[in-house]
Structure formats: structure tokens, C-alpha cells
Amino acid sequence: MLEKSLHPVIQALELVVFDFDGVFTTNQVIVDENGTEAVICNRSDGLAFRLLKAEKLPAMILSTEVNPVVQARARKLKLECVSGCPDKGKLLRQLSEDKKIELEKMAFVGNDANDLEALTIVGLGVAVGDAYPEAKAAAKWNLKEYGGRGAIREFCETVFRVRRSLGEGESPWLTPDVRATYASS
Which one, 35, 62, 117, 164, has the greatest CB density within 10 A? Predict the structure, then answer.
């Protein structure tokens, strides 16, 4: 549940950064006999990026892993991606400087111990529903949905609702600018 005190933080966001494993995925990996890895992502989560696009709110992926599947998913969703990042806090500080976006105007969505610093240095640290206890404790907002099972959609829909001041009965998917994203895909 999102506290009303976080609404101004959401209104001020200029960048959303997502961890990959455990946020886009169920935090599980399938490995075949050749060592090739595969993961499961949620298509509803992918669809939800249309809401951030309609809000002109940039999003990107930041992953510790160097794995072709991370880059492939980023390409499909047309998201900037940095993989092979052992120090997410350091990289967020660098992004802040390079993009001229204050850390307070960034959100980071994560799930695990290697996300702790990132969750605490941004304006809006967000943990998925099945995040590890330390990540949940570090976050300002804990999602209900699990990683790879709707957490990204919950985040994007809530951000859109807050930024558009939509009521509970109003669907973000029926707003004209979101509907227009279907034609541009």
C-alpha cells in the first residue's frame, strides 16, 4: 500500500531504475545442459511500461548480472540497460551526475541485499512483494505483487494513477494517450 505522504515524491520523479533478477523475473533461472540460462518474465509487467511512456517518465534496467537475457528484454521493451554492475549505489550516483537528475527524483525498484544502498539513496526506494526482509526494511514503498508476477505492473499503474490523480474506478488503460501507445508499438 502506498502512503499518501509519498505522492509528492512520485509527482517529482524524473527517472525510474529497475533491478532485473527478482523484479522482472521470479528470481529463478533455468539452465540447460550447455549452461544457457533462461528466465521467466511477466508480459503484463512489460505492457505496464506504456504507462510510464505516456507520463514521459524514463525507465531503465540496472543489473549485477552480465547475461544476454537482460539485454534482450531491455531491447524488446526499448529500455536503457546497464548490466554487469557490482555497485548499484555508485552507478546511481554516476547516473545522477550524467543525466543531471537529483537522486531524490529517482525511484529504484529492487528485491535483494545487493539493492540495499540503491534503495536508500534515491527519493523512492521500492521493494517487490517477495523481496528479502532487508530490502523491504530499506524501501519506502513495499509492493504487494511479487517479482516477475505483476510487481512492475503494480508499480507503473500506481505511479500513473498518482501522477494523473485517477480515482480507484478509473482505468489508466482507457486514457487517450495510453491507448495511443498501442498504435505506436
Answer: 62
**What is the count of structural domains for the chain?**
1
To the nearest 10 degrees (0 to 180), the angle between helices 43-54 and 176-183 is 120
Does residue 46 sit within a domain? yes
81, β-bridge pairs: 61
User: Which pTM value belongs to this model?
Assistant: 0.94
Angstrom distance (rounded) from CA 167 to CA 145:
20
- Collapsing DSSP to helix, strand or coil, 37 comes out as strand
Q: Which residues of 35-72 are buried (b: 16+ CB within 10 A; e: fewer)?
A: eeeebebbeebbbbbbbbbbbebbbebbbbeebebbee
Q: What does the pLDDT look like over 20-47, one tens digit per residue?
A: 999 999 999 999 999 998 999 999 999 9
CATH code for the domain of 13 = 3.40.50.1000
Residue 57 CA to residue 13 CA, distance in Å, equals 8
User: 31 phi and psi, to 5 degrees?
Assistant: -120, 125
